[in-house]
Amino acid sequence: MTPHDLHPLELLSPAKNADIGIEAVNHGADAVYIGGPSFGARAGATNEVADIERLVKHAHRFGAKIFVTLNTILRDDELEPARKLIHQVYEAGADALIVQDMGLLELDLPPIQLHASTQTDIRSVEKARFLQDVGFAQIVLARELTLPQIRAIAAQTDCVLEFFVHGALCVAYSGQCFISHAHTGRSANRGDCSQACRLPYNVTDAQGRVVAHQSHVLSMKDNNQADNLAALVDAGIRSFKIEGRYKDMGYVKNITAHYRRLLDDLMAQRVGLRPASSGRTRHFFTPDPDRNFNRGSTDYFVNGRQQDIGAFDSPKHAGLPVGWVTRVAPGHFELESTTELHNGDGLSYFDLQRELVGVQVNRAERVDGAEGAGVWRVFPNEPVASLKDLRPGTEVHRNRDIAWDRTLEKKSSERRIAVSMHFEASTSGCRLRLQDEDGHRGEARLAQPLAAANDPAKAEAALREHLQKLGGTIFEATELQLHLAEVPFLPASAVNQLRRDAVAALEAARANAYPRPLPRARVEPPVAYPDDSLTYLANVFNHKARDFYARHGVKVIDAAYESHEELGEVSLMITKHCVRYSLSLCPKQAKGVQGVQGTIKAEPLTLVNGKEKLTLRFDCKPCEMHVVGKIKRSVLQQVPAAPITFYKSKPDRPPAAR
């Protein structure tokens, strides 16, 4: 079996900026996704084209790819700037573009590969097949899918299937949340979500009774599919995506290294799989995903609906447990802990109202006990009296380990490509040939008379030493063969120059042979979209997108929610998460329970946060929840006009889910 017969597995890491992207590659990423100067779904994570080009050059040395996110919905006046930007990132060497807006497919684009963003909400075989047939080479499946649903899509498509395996979870189906825009004018579909899902709410029932008090009922735990990688491979996933374009360098290093090791272990156990890029990564630390910001972990719906998927107590990072408070004094408190504490650590605990309280350690001293164990005296950087509800018996967590942070601030990995070296020498000169693990070759020659060495053994040892000095390159020698009639005398400077020239030739050969991904051909004549009508949920915000869907057989096309045509109550969020289920109020849970069956109905609930009120309606057949509300008058006034009226009179609106 040749490498071309193997299925490549792609580890796809996020990058807020080029420096983080470079470290993602160094820590084992096969691909990196990064935002450009504008039009990305993370408005606070933008990068200039020159920085993307710098990242591309580094990534391509290892055969790793760079995907640029242009995955917001665009107004008509933004289409031309977006088109120009796409040409610029293509010229910078980007391998693919991640998009949501179908209007882009109607523009004059360079031959860049297109990937369908998670914002396109791919939950069905029909949607996946359609996006493949209109030219998407890779598609990001909805996070809510189960293994059988993924297998069904894989069986009916031949594009690359991508799936989020780690990081923060949006509670809504991606692209199907409009609460932020309705309440603040900040559109999630335009990269500026206000994260209403992380707020605390009172939940009341139809009779006005409080069923949950100040609970973060829309806040999910973080995604963690580490235990499901083999099952996801078997289901057809080939690209494993880490969330986090807002995350810092330490997060990207740690989580990339963690999944690099897991995937390498999986490939070592399986026949028919290979990494999607070149080289071997060595990490100078032991990855631990629990050390980074997280809200607890869940594998969400991959293995079916689970009870405990929400981070209802707090959307913040509590950290790892380190011990219990034993004593509280005026200027300090004491902890019984088996964990080594450091000056500058961040600690946290829950007060009596289950709100997370953070404490920064100004100074930590061991009172008694062995190394790393016993009682610690903690002097916080604020008065102890201000630490609400801190008392003996309080469980304390550490959400920042300063020693861990400093480990990741230093060089924490290296990535090398294996090469075999062949050195030949004769009386008229010498030649060094290199061949890397991918079959690329480079060589250098030294044409000058060579005399035999006076001390052959010493000269051969020195020759081997200098030829294998590849520490400053991306290569490592796994084989060195000397083809010598007799051992020549060569100055170290000559050997070093010969090696540098051969390495430069190999790098040039790799760069010239880099296989830039090609766009997927569109099926002609244009295939029909699975439905013949689209509501505001389709996020059509410009006339090119409208033309796209019309060309694919859609008869009725409503404008995106951001066009402000939906002034009444509509579904502002659609989600697989069910508050009734999480609060054990689901009729399906009560089915068959004596004395309970039939007494619980899927009646609406109400969410209240200050003056904000949202209605929860439950569509039990597909097992989905709709968060219903309407746009604020203040938002209608503050958002610049973007006239996107496709029809003079709108068709009847289907009722919101009941």
TrEMBL record:
GO terms for molecular function: peptidase activity. It comes from the Bacteria. It holds the Pfam family DUF3656. Keywords: Hydrolase, Protease. GO terms for biological process: proteolysis. The keyword Protease applies. The keyword Translocase does not apply. InterPro entries: Pept_U32_collagenase, Peptidase_U32, RNA/ubiquinone_mod_enzymes. Residues 396-510 form the Peptidase U32 collagenase domain. PANTHER family: 23S RRNA 5-HYDROXYCYTIDINE C2501 SYNTHASE (PTHR30217:SF10), PEPTIDASE U32 FAMILY (PTHR30217). This is Protease.
